[in-house]
Design brief:
The chain is α+β, with helices and mostly antiparallel strands. The protein folds into two domains: 2-93, Ubiquitin-like (UB roll) (Roll), CATH 3.10.20.90; 146-403, no CATH class. Helices cover 55% and strands 7% of the residues. The protein has helices at residues 2-9, 36-47, 103-116, 121-127, 138-144, 148-169, 173-189, 194-202, 207-216, 221-230, 245-259, 266-282, 290-298, 303-312, 317-325, 344-350, 353-358, 362-373, 378-382, 388-403; strands spanning 13-20, 25-31, 61-65, 70-71, 88-93. The protein has a five-stranded mixed beta sheet with strand order 2-1-5-3-4, covered by helices on one side. A hairpin with a 4-residue loop joins strand 3 (61-65) and strand 4. Helix 7 packs antiparallel against helix 11 (245-259), helix 8 (194-202) packs across helix 9 and helix 14 packs across helix 15. The chain starts with a helix and ends with a helix.
Length: 404
Amino acid sequence: MFVQEEKIFAGKVLRLHVCASDGAEWLEEATEDTSVEKLKERCLKHCAHGSLEDPKSVTHHKLIHAASERVLSDTKTLLEENVQDEDVLLLIRKRAPAPLPKMAEVSAEEKKKQEQKAPDRDAILRATASLPSYNMDRAVVQTNMRDFQTELRKILVSLIEVAQKLLALNPDAVELFKKANAMLDEDEDDRVDEAALRQLTEMGFPESRAVKALRLSRMSVPQAMEWLIEHAEDPTIDTPLPGPASQGEAGAEAAPAAAAGTSAEDEEARDELTEIFKKIRRKREFRADARAVVSLMEMGFDEKEVIDALRVNNNQQNAACEWLLGDRRPSPEELDKGIDPDSPLFQAILDNPVVQLGLTNPKTLLAFEDMLENPLNSTQWMNDPETGPVMLQISRIFQTLNRT
């Protein structure tokens, strides 16, 4: 009587296809209110041929609904897990967790790490106690391998002096001076970084104002943008910069002094021409990056120190900061010092025929002056057909002597 009532009130019977991990397949019948755990027990009995000796085997297996690829919860019923008639279930053994390492294994691993650890100072001293000692100055070792960029500035300073003297000895010194001065004027007044100009015009600034701002800021986009914003209401903002006329007049006045070298006052004329070339160089006087100056002064450094640091490090803020915090070498005074004229390096450079020929070209002097004040322009002059071979020979001679 009770069995019949149980059958009457039992849930819907589901016919489920069960697949085991070993490839076995069978049909299992269960009502909707059957728990997943009970169904799993029945499936395991089917696999184990009716014996369930290990009670943990139930917890070590799981049932997966094949269609939805989800693991069925042991505490829920088939109805709650939305299992339907003719569904396919997978009976899979759970992956066993990795066993905890034994104490002996842990000790062995720690011992291995200790063996691989770098030796401390005392261990090094004990191991090297029998070796002879050498007093080696690290500073000397570092200076033996000289940096080309650091030495290049000294080389350029000395080569500029040689080029000035060679041009002054030339009968056409005045014409050569005018040519060099014209190149410098063209370089300063007519050359505009097109990429920088495009950036400013895309921001909405008029092209004429952008050109003027870039020339005043030495082609620095951030400084040019600051200048344009600060002078937006300035009535003279559209006034063009003065052309090379005044500079040309200065050159014309200096020309007779150079021409006087044809008489007995050759030495005086050469000195006069040297002074003229110094004036050319002063046209490129250093301008510190305004933002870098403010940032470094906010760290507590004096303005003069900051400007010196930026000049030494070519307006590179990070390098300037390291210079201020370090030994401050090279010093600003060393920037204008040339290389020792009796050094093997300088003699080898002067003995090179390509360099000798290049020093008689005013464009080479212009390139040296430009690289001296704008080291980032070195690539431009290296690619120039007239100045590139000279720079290449200087670099090769330096590298050769530096290795030997």
